[in-house]
């Protein structure tokens, strides 16, 4: 009897099934695509890091330059006598010898005015008049003219010279930090006094440093006739701290948020990101010249747009 030869392949030597084939193909594809995907992720992370570094550096350099240039123009303007002041005009020279502060103060305290130096709130009184003169200034950005307010001590002198030549001298009575919901210091009635305001915390902190000073020639008026405790006590009682429930809604005279600002803020971020991401491809194809011309221009424009609209997300006086 003839032996039957089994021609079927050994099970161990069979070709992979369709499922196994798809698995192998998928693994091979992952090996091919992973390097590219990983490179894109690294580029995005690098773009974010570089954007933040550029923003911080540009904010310090460009902001300080803008402040210095504005102060030069304001100093020249201050030398010209005038009786009528518009928003943004040089109004006073503020000097604080203890801090080395010598700044021209403008009319108005919105984000645009504060880029050039401290500004007087338009809803506060003029220096020397009965009531509260409120001047706001940046703590860190745009030269940080009010960065050291917290270091003032009771009795330190503050001088305000108007464009007409009148000088009002104040003595520091109280230095304190208040929360964003504490706005009692913005009340403008009461004795002749000066209030300096700046940010107290970081870029996302709404707390404020508030320095209250009494006019050196503070006299007894109808507003403080019942106060016999002296100048410092008069100022302290005129501007106490309070909570939001006692004072009502916080005063937001200079709220700069809005749809237009938000669009500009996002535009600046987009220009920076696009410039950095496109720069990688341009370098491979055309070299550094194209990177600097095209990508560099996009990043520079984005940084400038972002810097001048960052007040959308940080306190105006930071």
TrEMBL record:
<feature type="compositionally biased region" description="Basic and acidic residues">
    <location>
        <begin position="1"/>
        <end position="11"/>
    </location>
</feature>
<feature type="transmembrane region" description="Helical">
    <location>
        <begin position="259"/>
        <end position="280"/>
    </location>
</feature>
<dbReference type="InterPro" id="IPR023365">
    <property type="entry name" value="Sortase_dom-sf"/>
</dbReference>
<feature type="compositionally biased region" description="Acidic residues">
    <location>
        <begin position="22"/>
        <end position="33"/>
    </location>
</feature>
<dbReference type="InterPro" id="IPR005754">
    <property type="entry name" value="Sortase"/>
</dbReference>
<keyword id="KW-0378">Hydrolase</keyword>
<dbReference type="Pfam" id="PF04203">
    <property type="entry name" value="Sortase"/>
</dbReference>
<keyword id="KW-0812">Transmembrane</keyword>
<feature type="transmembrane region" description="Helical">
    <location>
        <begin position="44"/>
        <end position="66"/>
    </location>
</feature>
<keyword id="KW-1133">Transmembrane helix</keyword>
<feature type="transmembrane region" description="Helical">
    <location>
        <begin position="286"/>
        <end position="308"/>
    </location>
</feature>
<keyword id="KW-0472">Membrane</keyword>
<protein>
    <submittedName>
        <fullName>Unannotated protein</fullName>
    </submittedName>
</protein>
<feature type="region of interest" description="Disordered">
    <location>
        <begin position="1"/>
        <end position="36"/>
    </location>
</feature>
<dbReference type="GO" id="GO:0016787">
    <property type="term" value="F:hydrolase activity"/>
</dbReference>
């Amino acid at each position: 009897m003839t032996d039957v030869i089994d021609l079927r392949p050994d099970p161990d030597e069979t070709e992979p099934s369709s499922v196994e084939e798809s698995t192998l193909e998928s693994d091979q594809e992952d090996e091919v695509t992973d390097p590219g995907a990983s490179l894109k992720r690294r580029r995005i992370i690098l773009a974010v890091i570089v954007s933040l570094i550029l923003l911080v550096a540009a904010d310090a350099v460009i902001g300080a330059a803008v402040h210095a240039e504005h102060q030069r123009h304001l100093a020249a303007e201050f030398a010209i006598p005038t009786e009528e002041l518009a928003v943004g005009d040089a109004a006073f020279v503020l000097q604080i010898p203890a801090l080395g502060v010598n700044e021209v103060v403008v009319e108005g305290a919105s984000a645009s005015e504060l880029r050039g130096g401290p500004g007087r709130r338009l809803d506060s009184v003029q220096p020397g008049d009965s009531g509260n003169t409120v001047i706001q200034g940046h703590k860190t950005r745009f030269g940080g003219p009010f960065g050291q307010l917290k270091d003032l001590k009771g009795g330190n002198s503050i001088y305000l010279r108007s464009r007409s030549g009148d000088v009002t001298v104040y003595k520091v009575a109280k230095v304190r930090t208040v929360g964003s919901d504490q706005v009692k210091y913005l009340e403008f009635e009461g004795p002749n006094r000066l209030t300096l305001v700046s940010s107290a915390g970081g870029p996302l902190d709404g707390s404020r440093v508030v320095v209250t000073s009494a006019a050196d020639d503070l006299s007894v008026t109808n507003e403080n006739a019942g106060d016999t405790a002296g100048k410092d006590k008069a100022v302290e009682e005129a501007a106490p701290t309070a909570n939001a429930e006692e004072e009502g809604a916080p005063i937001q005279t200079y709220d700069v948020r809005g749809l237009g600002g938000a669009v500009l803020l996002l535009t600046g971020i987009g220009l920076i990101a696009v410039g950095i991401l496109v720069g990688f491809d341009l370098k491979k194809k055309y070299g550094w010249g194209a990177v600097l011309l095209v990508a560099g221009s996009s990043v520079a424009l984005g940084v400038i747009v972002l810097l001048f609209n960052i007040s959308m997300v940080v306190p105006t006086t930071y």
